[in-house]
Please model this.
Amino acid sequence: MEAVVLAGGLGTRLRSVVSDVPKPMAPVGGRPFLRFVLDNLAARGVDRVVLAVGYMRGRIMDYFGDFYRGARLVYSVEEEPLLTGGAVRKALELCRDEAVFVVNGDTLLDADFEAMERLRAERGASLVMAVRRVGDAGRFGTVCVNEQGRIESFAEKGARREGLVNGGICLMNRRWLSDMPEGAFSLERDVFEPRVKRADMYALECRGLFMDMGVPEDYARACRELSQESFSRRAVFFDRDGTINVDVGHAFRPEQLRFVEGMPEFLARWNEWGYRVIVATNQSGIARGLYSEDDMRALHREMNRRLKAFGAHVDAFYHCPHHPDFTGPCVCRKPAPGMLKKALADFELDPAECLLFGDSSEDMAAAAACGIMGVRVPSARA
Ligand SMILES: [Zn+2]
Model:
């Protein structure tokens, strides 16, 4: 799954509270707010994120780099402010999926991505917007929805009343904005409102967490509530080929995937016990030109799809695409500990509370270098 995250906001409304960082980087409990947004996406299976950045983009790019929680991060750079519409249009050019989640970098919403995808498929919708019922909808502008979930109109900001508001997450057809001119335009005013008559925009009501960092009261609430959230500091790491699945040598097609007997059930137990389940895999097949990063991601999605039947899931896949003969030395290829170190930082894990299962001495060496206990398992080969 792919997402575009709007992280180019100027933060004018928040400037009274936080002045030296772009709005999505405002600190909440010692972490930038954008981390909560990206955590939310990674937890829902988003494995490729295009970040639309502009104002103070260096702060964002330096902090996150090219990967976060196993998801590839790509940056769409705005040289001048493009407003919401222009920023999304430009970022969508870097996407590949048929439909893409478009997410505000300064709001947090507990949205049901699978239900949004189902609604899009069932209705042939161009857009599915996650909406949230709030007491003071007038502050945001109301979304008017009929009984079938179709969006009928948008009401201006105004009087204080209960209603549905745009929750800051949409599932959008990738080509939906390709007929709009390049440059600055507003998604709400120049696209949503004129297109509502086409009757192919739907809304899905989401309950649960909703925070808008553009509002100082919500920022204060985020600092209070999110910083008190307790994170699991425990993880169990797995090597992939030969450990989770039978090693067939540079597997990349879904039909090559065969689980080692008992592994899906084993993963499910760790999930149940509150451990993060993280895969760290050397994928030199990418450096060798045997398959692409997209092929690999598709295989990982298939793995999680099949694990679901066992009540199991992998929280994140970390990979090293290098090989010294083709791409020179790197810090991530096991026995080097780069992948494990990145995962420890991304998930804020305590190495003493982690374990690693692998079938090679390289796995054991990488674990030892991070203070993680390694458990060697027999190698499963075809
Ligand atoms: Zn590497």
